[in-house]
Amino acid sequence: MRTNYRYIRPSFLEIVKKPNLKVAVVIACRDGQDKLDLVLAALKEQTYPAALFTVYIIDDGSVKALVLPKIRPAKTKLIKFKNKDRAWGKTLATNFAVSTLKEDVLWFLDADMVVEPDHLSHHMKWHHYADDFVVLGWKRFVGDWSYTPELLGSELRNGSFSTLHKVSEGKDSWELLIKGTDDLRAPSLESFRALVGATFSISRKNWNSLGGYNPIFTTGEDNELGWRALLGGMRFVPERQALSWHLGISTVEVHTDTVIAHNRPLFAHHVPAMSYLRANDQLTWTVPENYIVADCRSMPAESFKNMVNEFLADESGQARFILIGNWKALTARYKVTEDSLKELREINRWIAGDSRFSCEESASEKKLLISEILQRFDEPSTPFFYFTEGAIDPVIRFAALRHRISKSGNGLEGVVDSKDQRTFVIYAPALGRANRAGGNVYRNIQELWGMRWSEISQVDFSKSLSTNNLLPLVRIAFRAAKKIRNLSDFTKLLKKARQVLKKTISK
User: Fold this and answer.
1) DSSP conformation letters of 161-214
2) In the chain, what is the straight-line distance between the N-terminal and C-terminal CA atoms, in Å?
3) pLDDT at position 255, please?
4) pLDDT at position 465, please?
5) Closest to 177 measured CA to CA, from 238, 227, 266
6) How do residues 86-120 score in pLDDT, each as one tens digit?
7) Could you give the CA distance from residue 474 to residue 176 in angstroms, rounded to a whole number?
8) Which among 123, 107, 126 is positioned nearest to 23, based on CA atoms?
9) Comparing 22 with 85, which gets the higher pLDDT?
10) Long-range CB pairs of 304-313, under 8 A, 24+ apart, other chains included
11) Can you tell me the distance from the alpha carbon of 24 to that of 105, in angstroms, rounded to the nearest whole number?
12) What is the DSSP pairing of strand 133-142 with strand 199-203?
């Protein structure tokens, strides 16, 4: 596997002259035979070797069963996904079909996309270069078209793709996200939104490691997958030469309010970066923003409570805790006035009945190795992992550590006290990349993302707000402001901005 530092990648790649990777083109479709015929006609003209790609059409319970048209790629197969009460929709249909595929790369394409002949070749040049890319095609929306599959094929062979439509429009918010992150070379946690399902490709190995689409999402499954791919340390590439026409305006654009209302609860539960969806709600979220491993074997109860209370004060972010200690020893007979385990016992009593805490048994007195700590960070949708141990210095503020890592861009930021007690935070994308690279995970974080250790006295734990925090908020505000049509919309935007700004300052 070819690895790079953080999100560095070549500025340009030529189409591979002698490719060898096999591709599964996955198209989930319900009804829409006419558009599908055009999609297949365009795929027939792809310059990527026909022997290396197979098109899989998944019929997701069409009222009138889909059929394979005459004009199609040589290797095209139709998969019937039989709908049941709890088994229907693009998400489950796609997971079902992909589970049996063996190709090297999966290219997901919507059933209303007419692609330029070199489209797949532009995707595949990245996958031939390295196996950690998620490649995003470039699309324009069109409202009208009159060509038949036969005429479309002829136009594409004549090099007339760009003149098929004189009037088209892009997705402003998506293109602003791409531009504002230097084509995703400098992504933030917000950049998960870049992954949309219309045309993207990923290695089958990485798709499987992510677990495919989250089955509880009926729509928005692509964005949620993007969140997990981002945290997995994968590099997103918006390939501007992989051009396509989207036949018709997207469902989200036509029914914006309805779709947003439908997706809001699920995104709030599963994507902590969308913290504004969690504001003012006293719910327990499925995925916490913070995951803490605390070695409690020599931790005073007071230190424990101070640490926990800081995390739990963040109601929208929330936290989950793994507590390491000799918990079994607490069942033995003891004398209240001579209790050698009184601190651990008090910790155990404070957390009793709270599902946010899990206890891990360790009777050993040996200091945890860094490799042993990293193995415990296994929550795929949580963006920040923390470790702390012993008598935590009261000057430490975990929010300041998070601010420090967000500002530096490092994969790990840690502090050590005079007793060699460690407290550190890890950025999930750095850990994801390090795990996939193989070998020593700690060394991989250092080499692929960067890390910094400091003595506690060298760190300013006062909270502050940098321009790095503000710029993403400003971009979001500008995008939202463009959609304002009346005073009530402005009031809602102002209220949301106050909530997000308050949360950011607290970090």
Assistant:
1) GGGS-S--B--HHHHHHHHHTTTTTS--GGGGGG--TTEEEEEHHHHHHHTSS-
2) 36
3) 80
4) 42
5) 238
6) 899 999 999 999 999 999 999 999 999 999 999 99
7) 12
8) 107
9) 22
10) 304/347, 304/350, 305/350, 306/392, 306/394, 307/388, 307/392, 307/398, 310/397, 310/398, 310/399, 311/398, 312/356
11) 6
12) antiparallel
Residue 425 vs residues 137, 291, 410, 413: alpha-carbon distances, Å: 34, 10, 10, 6
CA distance 172 to 232: 27
In whole angstroms, give the CA distance from residue 251 to residue 396: 48
Residue type, 343: E
Q: What is the mean pLDDT of the chain?
A: 92
Residues 6+ apart with CB under 8 A from 7: 184, 185, 186, 187, 235
| pLDDT value, residue 502 | 53
**Contact assessment for residue 507 and residue 469, using Cβ atoms and an 8 Å cutoff:** yes
HSE-CB at 284 with a 13 A cutoff on CA atoms is: 5
Amino acid 501: pLDDT: 56
98: left (phi over 0), alpha (psi -120 to 50) or beta: alpha
H or E stretch covering 426: strand 422-427
- In this predicted structure, the answer to whether residue 489 has a pLDDT above a threshold of 70 is no
The CA angle 280-289-489, to the nearest 5 degrees, is 40
Q: How far is CA 382 from the centre of its chain?
A: 10
SS3 letters for 132-167? CEEEEEEEEEECCCCCCHHHHHHHHHCCCHHHCCCC
What pLDDT shows up at residue 280? 84
| Token pair 């200690």: residue | 325
pLDDT at 224: 98
- In terms of phi and psi (left: phi > 0; alpha: psi -120 to 50; beta: otherwise), the region of 208 is alpha
Distances (CA, A) of 175 to 4, 71, 187: 25, 33, 13
pLDDT digits (tens, 9 = 90+) for 289-332: 999 999 999 999 999 999 999 999 988 889 999 999 999 999 99
Radius of gyration of the chain (CA): 26
Residues 6+ apart with CB under 8 A from 395: 456, 461
* pTM assigned to the model: 0.90
Alpha-carbon gap, residue 361 to 265, rounded angstroms: 35
Q: Indicate the DSSP class of residue 87.
A: B
Render pLDDT for 21-45 as a digit per residue (tens, 0 to 9): 999 999 999 999 999 999 999 999 9
**Token pair of 30, please?**
């319900």
Cα dihedral sign, 26-30-33-38: negative
Distance of CA 99 to the CA centre of its chain: 21
